[in-house]
Design a protein that fits this description.
mainly alpha, single chain, about 75% helix
């Protein structure tokens, strides 16, 4: 993400990572349903499914922190809610 972290920008990044994770999950499921379960698990590890999910969780925590900070410091609210 760019240096100016915003709630909107953070949520956009969460969404992008979850979209990629969902696509990877669908691909792995297709492999497993086709009888290639070991290949499906290998794909999830090699393409870092767990990293995408972890990054999404971390970004969501950052967005929550920005929201709390904006509430506690109204003069920061414009910065946290600015388009990202």
């Amino acid at each position: 993400m760019a240096a100016g972290l915003t709630i909107t920008g953070g949520l956009r990044e969460v969404s992008a990572r979850l979209d990629r994770a969902a696509a990877l999950g669908r691909a792995a499921l297709a492999c497993a349903e086709g009888g290639a379960e070991e290949e499906a698990v290998r794909i999830t590890h090699e393409l870092d499914l767990d990293q995408l999910i972890g990054e999404a969780a971390t970004l969501l925590a950052a967005v929550s922190l920005l929201q709390r900070m904006a509430r506690e410091h109204p003069d920061w609210a414009g910065v946290a809610a600015a388009p990202g």
